[in-house]
Amino acid sequence: MSLQSARPASAPVPATIERVVETVLPTRHGTFRMVGYRDSAGTEHVALARGIDDAMHGAHDAPPLVRVHSECLTGDAFGSWRCDCGEQLDAALSAIAGEGRGVVVYVRGHEGRGIGLLAKLKAYALQDQGVDTVDANTELGLPIDDRNYDQAAEILQDLGIRAVRLLSGNPAKEEALEELGIDVVERRGLPVSERTENAGYLATKRARMRHDTPPSADAWRSLLHGAVPPAPAPGEAEELTHRYGYLAAAPGRLVVGQLRQSLDGFIASRSGDAGLHEDRGDHGHLQRLRALVDAVVVGASTVLTEDCSLAVRDVPGSSPVRVVLDASARVAVGARVLADDGVPTLWVIGADAVTPDGLPSTVEVLRVRAADFAPERILAVLQARGLEKILIEGGGKTVSRFLEAGLLDRLYLTTAPVLVGDGVPGIRFTGSDALAEARTAPVRRFVFGQDICTEFNFAGVR
């Protein structure tokens, strides 16, 4: 289905818009020049520009980064995870701010690929019943994609832009702009997370609407299969390979610790409030670690405080075996780690602990003596079951025990920009009197939003 009628690339765009107002808009990505337009149908559009002066720049300038963004109330305003629109918009503003030059053209009237907000919600209702995004539109008697880009092309030309580097994974958008006289010298996708909630939507766009498969998806698929891409594409694919290649390809046993704590070393307040973990910058990183290991280990206190599922939800990959260390069997049968969700759970309890009735078949109870809760004994039990790659996810006591025992090959210690003052401690172990004997190792650092993650490679000093 053509998005608009064919038009020679050199032909001028018919006048459909007028510039109405100009101001500035400060955002978390910096301050943008904001230009407001109205088209001949009365629909209002805006352009957010950075480093663009339409009175001065010309053909000699390098083509700027441009995102032609279709209005999406649910994604842009409400942060919906049914699509990736809001995250694409945010990533575009970030990329333009980083380069210092570019434009986001925000096109109104494109809701639901042009079918309108309420029709989009009706399509959502069909998707809730298992219909994909393409068939949902056709079942409603609506076009698959009813957008046109005349207004976007004219806005770009009004800003003096004739050639662009397009931020889009949609080849149809490139073709439409080319037909409207905008030279697309490059097109590239924006690196945003694929989530459980939008994985089917994105897969349908790639399979049935010609959208690109991002290089990072190919790189991540390779890592999930234990292969390190030899020449990953620059950007997210290269970053994923750099960060997780060792874990994907590691033979034999590998034990990775992971903990997020405040800058002053606490994982919860003194009342036990663990709200620190509700809006974590390293969420995607943690999901990827889970997807690359065979088992994820937590202590009972973490389950009681956070009621975590330990499942892989927001990145492609399978959930690892969940291992809950709970000597007194304190975890309730309704806890998410014991849920009947298809993910195997090993509930390690004391020999005399009492377990509740009604445990799902995915939960295996393993009774051990007190001595068998020692970290090295736990790893031996897991290895005997063929679980080689182990993630020790929390809490502070559990990760610290494995660290003090010298069993962690790597430790990801993420610090959140908050000072708790007094509370539940994070990493703690028996130290030494001399700082020269303090534990250290080769490190790498990663920035996840406002969080800073330090990776210690303890295997590198053995």
Overview of the molecule:
It is a single chain. The chain is of the alpha/beta class. It has 2 domains: 17-110 and 147-210, GTP cyclohydrolase II (Rossmann fold, 3-Layer(aba) Sandwich); 250-461, 3-Layer(aba) Sandwich (Dihydrofolate Reductase, subunit A), CATH 3.40.430. The protein has helices at 73-77, 85-99, 111-114, 117-128, 133-139, 150-158, 171-179, 199-208, 215-224, 236-249, 283-292, 300-306, 375-384, 396-404; strands spanning 17-27, 30-39, 44-50, 65-70, 102-107, 163-167, 183-188, 254-262, 266-269, 295-299, 321-325, 345-350, 363-368, 389-394, 410-416, 423-425, 443-448, 451-457. The protein is elongated, with a radius of gyration of 26 Å. The relative contact order is 0.10. Mean pLDDT is 91; it is low at 1-13.
CATH superfamily of the largest domain: Dihydrofolate Reductase, subunit A
CATH topology of the largest domain: Dihydrofolate Reductase, subunit A
Low-confidence stretches: 1-13
Mean pLDDT, nearest integer? 91
The percent range for helix content is: 25-40%
> What form results from the Cα inertia axes?
elongated
Sheet of most strands: 9 strands, mixed
Total number of helices: 14
> Strand share of the residues?
15-25%
User: Which architecture of the largest domain per CATH?
Assistant: 3-Layer(aba) Sandwich
| CATH top level assignment of the largest domain | Alpha Beta
Query: What's the gyration radius in Å?
Result: 26 Å
